[in-house]
Amino acid sequence: MKSLNLTAKDVEKVKKAAALISSSLENHHTIIEVAKAVQLPEKRLKYAFKQLMGHGLYGYLQLQRMERAKVLMLEGEKIKNIVPKVGYANEANFSKAFKKVYKELPTQWRKGVLSKTG
Questions:
Q1: What residue numbers bound the domain in which 26 lies?
Q2: Could you tell me where the DSSP H helices lie in the chain?
Q3: Number of domains the chain contains
């Protein structure tokens, strides 16, 4: 794709898309749904989002989910209760995704963090 100049409206719409994703991590929005919600053509949204956020929409969603999961774990929430809050159907899928990002299972991560602070 050739380089596109991003307008101030594009930037505003990407921020709106990021806020939509971040505010509803339990939902599985498609790129088409997000594009319609922010009134930006799908291809332009994908390009602009990657340029401004450093990740595609799906990658951004995954990172936001993992960051939210970490916060909930540190607040003492049980992993089984965190899983649906961050959009996963089961603990196995969540643990696999968490390990892919942080190189350890959620329970290992929490133990490691708590041992350093406690």
A1: 8-54
A2: 8-23, 31-38, 42-53, 57-74, 79-85, 91-102, 106-117
A3: 2
